[in-house]
TrEMBL record:
<feature type="domain" description="Malonyl-CoA:ACP transacylase (MAT)">
    <location>
        <begin position="7"/>
        <end position="315"/>
    </location>
</feature>
<protein>
    <recommendedName>
        <fullName>Malonyl CoA-acyl carrier protein transacylase</fullName>
        <ecNumber>2.3.1.39</ecNumber>
    </recommendedName>
</protein>
<dbReference type="InterPro" id="IPR050858">
    <property type="entry name" value="Mal-CoA-ACP_Trans/PKS_FabD"/>
</dbReference>
<dbReference type="InterPro" id="IPR014043">
    <property type="entry name" value="Acyl_transferase_dom"/>
</dbReference>
<dbReference type="InterPro" id="IPR016035">
    <property type="entry name" value="Acyl_Trfase/lysoPLipase"/>
</dbReference>
<keyword id="KW-0808">Transferase</keyword>
<feature type="active site">
    <location>
        <position position="202"/>
    </location>
</feature>
<keyword id="KW-0012">Acyltransferase</keyword>
<dbReference type="GO" id="GO:0006633">
    <property type="term" value="P:fatty acid biosynthetic process"/>
</dbReference>
<dbReference type="GO" id="GO:0005829">
    <property type="term" value="C:cytosol"/>
</dbReference>
<dbReference type="InterPro" id="IPR016036">
    <property type="entry name" value="Malonyl_transacylase_ACP-bd"/>
</dbReference>
<feature type="active site">
    <location>
        <position position="91"/>
    </location>
</feature>
<dbReference type="InterPro" id="IPR004410">
    <property type="entry name" value="Malonyl_CoA-ACP_transAc_FabD"/>
</dbReference>
<comment type="similarity">
    <text>Belongs to the fabD family.</text>
</comment>
<dbReference type="GO" id="GO:0004314">
    <property type="term" value="F:[acyl-carrier-protein] S-malonyltransferase activity"/>
</dbReference>
<dbReference type="InterPro" id="IPR001227">
    <property type="entry name" value="Ac_transferase_dom_sf"/>
</dbReference>
<dbReference type="InterPro" id="IPR024925">
    <property type="entry name" value="Malonyl_CoA-ACP_transAc"/>
</dbReference>
Length: 317
């Protein structure tokens, strides 16, 4: 039984040039990009490989782009005989995890996340919402201070990404996010960093997006996952097709409970974690959550070789 967990990144991991090396060196990866281009009706591959960066940063393009690179990397791993026993993805990455688990087709997933990105972008007028990373303060205390700021300002702010014990992202109306950031600093937070995001993700302001996504997901055919996939919103494993749609809808307005998802994977027996897709954001979070864990990544041929070598060595020791 494999003790490998695949972790799939979310928005913020994108860079111009991502996936090019995989597509040039592995036909199975090139085929994923071609499938994405066909499903979307435009050249997502060109956007990933050549930019422009400003377009790649727009949510409706970012989400299918990261999904595509992640699925390409997962299929290259599969071609090399590397499979996982568990999967988890950060926000958007939960879709990549479900593609890897066979829960739905890649073509359906890439079309759905394009719509998801559009819905999330359109849910709140630009400038009205905001997000901030709070560093060095307990997540439960941050939740209390968000509630205090919400009450004071009569608008919404709440924890959105529980990324690491010392890193929680808050989301909501810009004025309430600013007030909550002040309160957190007064309570002893090391830093409160306003994030350059286009919308306040994972809070109640995203309800219009969740409603539209629910209709979109009605058209998707779901299968039982071939491996347990950790649900962001509940921090529990999803193993039946009937559960997936509801988890993905609630994920839009609910917090990403990443620390608890990693704990869940460890409890289930995962001892090696592989970040599958662009960047090393999740590797960085793992260092903050539990430095003792073996963390590898695959985003290009060089990182693939390192990961294959590390996995081969762990089998012989």
């Amino acid at each position: 039984m494999s003790n490998i967990a695949f972790l799939f990144p979310g928005q913020g991991s994108q860079t111009v040039g991502m996936g090019r090396d995989l597509a040039e060196k592995f036909p199975v990866a090139k085929a994923v990009f071609e499938e994405a281009d066909d499903a979307l009706g435009y050249s997502l591959s060109a956007l990933c490989f050549d930019g422009p960066e400003e377009q790649l940063k727009q949510t409706e393009y970012t989400q299918p782009a990261i999904l595509t690179v992640s699925v390409a990397a997962a299929r290259v791993l599969a071609e090399h005989g590397i499979t996982a026993s568990f999967a988890a993805g950060h926000s958007l990455g939960e879709y990549s995890a479900h593609v890897a688990a066979g829960t739905f087709s890649f073509a359906d997933a890439v079309r759905t996340v394009r719509s998801r990105g559009q819905f999330m972008q359109d849910a709140v007028p630009e400038g009205k919402g905001g997000m901030a990373a709070i560093l060095g303060l307990d997540a439960a205390r941050i939740g209390e201070l968000c509630q205090q700021a919400s009450d004071e300002m009569n608008c919404i702010v709440a924890p959105a990404n529980l990324n690491a014990p010392e890193q929680t992202v808050i989301s909501g109306d810009a004025v309430a996010v600013a007030r909550a950031s002040e309160l957190c600093k007064e309570a002893g937070a090391k830093r409160a960093v306003t994030l350059a995001v286009s919308a306040p993700f994972h809070c109640k302001l995203m309800e219009p997006a969740a409603d539209k996504l629910a209709s979109e997901l009605e058209r998707v055919i779901f299968n039982d996952p071939t491996m347990p996939v950790a649900s962001n919103v509940d921090a529990r494993f999803v193993s039946r097709s009937t559960e997936v749609r509801d988890c993905l809808i609630r994920q839009v307005t609910g917090a990403v409970r990443w620390v608890e998802c990693i704990a869940l994977l460890k409890e289930a027996g995962a001892t090696t974690f592989v970040e599958v897709g662009p960047g090393k954001v999740l590797s960085g979070l793992m260092r903050q959550i539990d430095r003792a864990q073996t963390m590898l990544n695959v985003e290009d041929a060089a990182s693939l070789e390192k990961t294959l070598a590390a996995l081969a060595e762990s089998k012989t020791t």
